[in-house]
Design a protein that fits this description.
The chain is of the alpha+beta class. The protein is built from 5 helices and 11 strands; from the N terminus they run ββαββαβββββααββα. The protein has a single domain, classed as Pseudouridine synthase (2-Layer Sandwich). Helices cover 16% and strands 33% of the residues.
Length: 235
């Protein structure tokens, strides 16, 4: 069942459009460039902080808060789930393998096959950069499934099923294949002239952690993606 909550724009947290809210969860669409949670260099301009203010409705004495269930890279846009209690947070995490998350990405060049699964052991180095490793004991086995859904002379549009959820997994795997995500200077090398990373968490489907009602949330393709793909028909 597709469900969306209509919240007036003036009440929306800047950079995070709330599309659904009930007494247990909040679902919303994060803008590219906004952190999910705080970092050493930024504590307040994050989805987590903005939603804490959102649920407090301007009451400075309120102790209401939201709980992080999963994260998106700062450069990645798209759907995120937050819980309104630690109990619901744990219920979602315990059932995470049954939550279906679909991403879209625009990559340089053409993939070698229309569909495929990229697998490797991923490890984080001392500079907090993820990379594939042949040392099985050091890395975590990771799988990224993809389907090509659009092609131009320069780019391919991929629909991605994240079979495991490691940090920067999609970006590392696609760069390993020689087809880095457009705008990815971190894993794709020098990639000037792009306003953002062409990676977006497009849809999420799951059973409500309390009611067990089937839920589905989807988003439109970002304008940046449509611009890159030009006249190619996209769904």
């Amino acid at each position: 069942m597709t469900i969306r909550t209509k919240i007036p724009k003036r009440y929306q947290p800047k950079g995070f459009e709330v599309v659904y809210e009930d007494s247990h969860i909040i679902i919303g669409e994060k803008a590219a460039g906004l952190l999910t949670v705080g970092a050493l260099w930024e504590r307040e301009n994050t989805v987590h902080h903005l939603l804490n203010q959102f649920v407090r409705k301007g009451n400075s004495k309120s102790r209401k808060c939201v709980f992080v269930v999963h994260r998106l890279d700062q450069a990645t846009s798209g759907l995120l789930i937050f819980a309104k209690s630690e109990r619901v947070q744990q219920l979602l995490k315990d059932n995470w393998k049954n939550i279906k998350k679909t991403y879209i990405a625009v990559v340089h060049g053409r993939m070698p096959a229309a569909t495929g699964v990229i697998s490797s052991y991923l490890v984080e180095d001392e500079d907090y950069v993820m990379h594939s490793t042949s040392a099985v004991s050091e890395g975590k086995l990771s799988h990224t499934a993809y389907s090509v859904v659009g092609v131009t002379n320069r780019y391919s549009l991929l629909e991605i099923d994240l079979l495991t959820g490691r940090k920067n997994q999609i970006r590392v795997h696609l760069a390993d294949e020689g087809h880095p995500v457009v705008g990815d200077a971190k894993y794709g090398g020098a990639d000037p002239g792009f306003s953002r990373l062409a990676l977006h968490s497009r849809s999420i489907a799951f059973a409500h952690p309390v009611t067990q009602e089937p839920m589905f949330f989807g988003t439109e393709l970002p304008k940046f993606v449509r611009t890159l793909m030009g006249h190619v028909p996209l769904s």
